[in-house]
Hints:
Blueprint: H1 3-14, H2 24-35, H3 40-47, H4 51-61, H5 75-82, H6 84-94, H7 102-133, H8 137-146, H9 150-157, H10 161-165, H11 176-183, H12 187-197, H13 202-209, H14 221-240, H15 245-257, H16 265-276
Amino acid sequence: xxxxxxxxxxxxxxxxxxxxxxxxxxxxxxxxxxxxxxxxxxxxxxxxxxxxxxxxxxxxxxxxxxxxxxxxxxxxxxxxxxxxxxxxxxxxxxxxxxxxxxxxxxxxxxxxxxxxxxxxxxxxxxxxxxxxxxxxxxxxxxxxxxxxxxxxxxxxxxxxxxxxxxxxxxxxxxxxxxxxxxxxxxxxxxxxxxxxxxxxxxxxxxxxxxxxxxxxxxxxxxxxxxxxxxxxxxxxxxxxxxxxxxxxxxxxxxxxxxxxxxxxxxxxxxxxxxxxxx
Length: 278
């Protein structure tokens, strides 16, 4: 981690913001995977010690993006369907719920559901545009799962965070200006530091930092991944039939970055949503 990131973490700590430690299940998975001689059964046995994580992974494995129609009866099958790397990423994301208060639990459920659906949409877009964008579905899925990982961290720090920002609905999510006005922090910056602390790939960390814009200063992989996230978030809003004000500003630029012509935009939306629903 760079000195700037370490300094930012120190400043967050001074404000009482705690970056969640990696829980024991995650540490054990890390150690097993790092050994490079693990078996699927060994990893499944570790995950199975946490019923909440097990249930979450079963739910994800049944999603259309992972071929949800198939029958899945064991954690080992889940690992084979999702993949070891992707399962590990999901366990990381779920670990952000540690120590949430009951008051924040409902908002976190909305957060988790939204993140999963955005991740699935991002993976489908990446799979379709991979020859144009060179972003792979598993990379897009990881970015989607983590793109707002700063939100539950701020929920932990500020008991009134959900009420102040009206997060009781899955489509009501904080904008950076409101967060800064109330708490002098924003979830993009905090999420970036969480991702760095947990050693996610650098371009994923950068995409988390910039996911509310399409950064001119970040070219190539980061800019393209942010565009995929923006399109996935927009499709989430369209599915939910709510306005997406960011799209009015960035939409045409996002489509151009992904090589999608404006006159094909509606047809492309229908294609991705059909795949999303299986």
